[in-house]
Amino acid sequence: MKNDRYIIAGISALCLLLIIVTSVNSSFLMPLRSGAGFFLVPMEKGVNAVGSGLFGNIQAYSDLRDAQEENARLNERVANLTEENNRLSSETYELERLRELYKLDQEYMNYPKVAARVIAKDSGNWFQVFRIDKGASDGIRADMNVIANGGLIGIVTDVGQNYATVRAIIDDDSNVSAMSQRTGETCNVSGSMELFEDGRLGLDHVRKDADIAEGDRIVTSNISDVYLPGLFIGYASALSTDSNNVTKSGTVIPVGQFDNIREVLIITKLKGEEMQNQDDSDTKRSASEHNDVPQEETQAETEPVIDPIAERKTEKASETSEESSSSGETVEEETGSNG
After folding, report:
1. Pair 223, 202: CB distance under 8 Å
2. Of residues 44 and 218, more confidently modeled
3. C-alpha dihedral sign at 145, 148, 151, 157
4. Contact predicate 232/255, CB 8 Å
């Protein structure tokens, strides 16, 4: 370690001496200057080469470090922009879904509704049974109809305090009393996971001569026990006469999408309540129609009823009474005169 310092010190002293020698402009020192120049030029070239190499490496390292820092900043910026783009894309998709949901809400604006988000579903590719984030505390009850994606999706089967379970119309246990919107001919739409692999539902219980044609809009019927009337299900397809030659059947292409359900609308009016309201309306209507008659009858009862026959009998009785009275007075007068 000490030897290294001595060597460096010696070389430094030698370099200093040579610099002084080459700096003095004297003929006496010319040979020494020439020799020093012969010795110093290669050394300067070496030192310059080493210095240039070191400077280049240092500069390259500095540039590399700057580039790495810039790359890190750019990567962070790209990550932020990607995250923002994903968020905006998600919000755009959500906005489109909510617009569709609002459009559906306006289409069935005569029914009160509550919006809900899907929070879970059964295993499998399709949303045949799924759970929503609204429950009894939000007024949700069993048998309430659920709509989304342009039409009927399913029905509430189980209700918790803050959640509810929905069975979709594609489920094997689902049966919906329906009808052709064009003609009112009734039918039944049955769920079938086997059929839905081809994007279809079952269409059955159709009379052979029923006027249901290919492409007819199929909606829930008025005679359904649990489904409100007029909810769009899909389009009739592939109708053919059954082997019994009495009925015909086919399939329905559902309007709803069951592979990705995010938000739904729950109609908070039950079919029983709808029927009760209709009965109450009919009762009120009947009562008002019936109430018009009692009012007329009451007025008639307050007015005197003139019976011509009774009046004639009364007049005759009065005349007879007057005649009897006159006869009695005549007899009394005759008796008095006789006396």
Report:
1. no
2. 218
3. negative
4. yes
Query: CA 156, CA 165: separation in Å to the nearest integer?
Result: 6
Q: Return the structure tokens found at 265.
A: 């609308």
CA R_g for the chain: 53
| pLDDT single digits (tens) 234-257 | 999 999 999 999 999 999 999 988
Residue 247: how many other CB atoms lie within 10 Å? 15
3-state secondary structure 211-278: CCCCCCEEEECCCCCCCCCCCEEEEEEEEEECCCCCEEEEEEEECCCCCCCCEEEEECCCHHHHHHHH
| pLDDT reading at 320 higher than 90 | no
- What residue segments make up the domains of the chain, in order of their start? 2-72, 108-271
Specify the higher pLDDT residue, 32 or 210: 210
- β-partners of residue 203 are 189, 250
Mean pLDDT score, 214-232: 94
- Cβ pair 41, 18 in contact under 8 A: no
Contact 240, 249 (CB under 8 A): yes
CA distances, 254 to each of 198, 203, 206, 264, 274 (Å): 11, 11, 18, 16, 25
Which is it for the CA torsion 231, 237, 240, 242, positive or negative? negative
Mean of the per-residue pLDDT values of the chain: 78
User: Tokens for 267?
Assistant: 């109609």
221, 205 Cβ separation under 8 angstroms:
no
Q: What CATH code is assigned to 108-271?
A: 2.40.10.340
Query: Hunting for tokens 């003095």 — which residue is that?
Result: 24
| CA–CA dist 286, 295 (Å, integer) | 15
